[in-house]
């Protein structure tokens, strides 16, 4: 199971590291390896969240996620996307954007590729932050049978019965962020507030569109009671019916936008390690491949069924990441902090799941034993 799932990731890692060495000798290899490790360690919550979506897709679309999806993640988000952002914000044609990227200028120096990408960060953070915030709000406002942080999840689910509450709150958060964090004395960004507002609305609109299309074409009849169960004891829950066709296609699009929202901050933060976009693409690409393989591994192992609070932990980590992205509009937040918060939520959720399974196992154990009559 391990090599079948991670075999391609290992092979691509070897090829990527060799390319890093060929491109920039030992330093290129070392930097690519560092970036790959950082991407993997800081994106575990991404894998868990992706798995909650991927489990709904047929095996064919799961393979598409590992092939076409990887190409989009590695070449699209880690290489082409930064070039597009720099080209649009600096009003450069594609050739000039590529030339600027290959110059490997100091990100702190005005006019360099890294500097221009950093200048575009408020718009990127607003888009990704609002997309992830909507995902988090829709989760906590949904009524569900199993809750993790019941003391807050249950009251939020009751409040969530108000129609479109998540959209109202998200717009309020966006406006507050734009007019508090968006104020800048930097003359290079005089219209930053409007840029943040437009980008945030686009992020919110993208979520509503992709999520709405996925639900519109969803072939799942919602009848989970007849499904087979998996997991340990009472922790088991019905297996999700897998979808195909148009429903799976829009789930795939949703998954790609979700992955993009996770990767925005990492791409920009990578410039703190190296200004070379080629090395960044190689290192983050290797990490992205392992994260996708880990996603598939979680699905095939039924981990989300066995450890029922993992999804909750990952979604709370997403809520934290959304807040961090919005804060990063004005203040720099180290990648380590972002990663540790995600790991903390998922770690606590995993521990809670293990304890829950143990309690459920203890309560069912006497039923499996024959009670001996007491001695007279």
Description:
The protein is mainly alpha-helical and 376 residues long. It has one domain. Helices cover 72% and strands 1% of the residues. The protein has a two-stranded antiparallel ribbon with strand order 1-2. A hairpin with a 6-residue loop joins strand 1 and strand 2. The longest helix is centred in the first third of the chain and has 41 residues. The radius of gyration is 22 Å and the shape is globular. The termini are far apart.
Which parts are unreliable, with pLDDT below 50 for 5 consecutive residues or more? 219-238, 366-376
Helical proportion, percent range:
over 70%
> Largest sheet at a glance?
2 strands, antiparallel
Q: Strands of the biggest beta sheet: in what spatial order?
A: 1-2
User: What's the order of the H and E elements?
Assistant: HHHHHHHHHEEHHHHH
Beta-strand level of the residues, as a percent range? under 5%
Give the beta-strand count: 2
Structural classification:
mainly alpha
Query: Total number of helical segments?
Result: 14
The geometry reads as globular
Mean pLDDT: 78
Termini separation: 54 Å
Radius of gyration, in Å, reads: 22 Å
Summed up, the domain count is 1
What is the structure about, briefly put?
This protein has 376 residues and is an all-alpha fold.
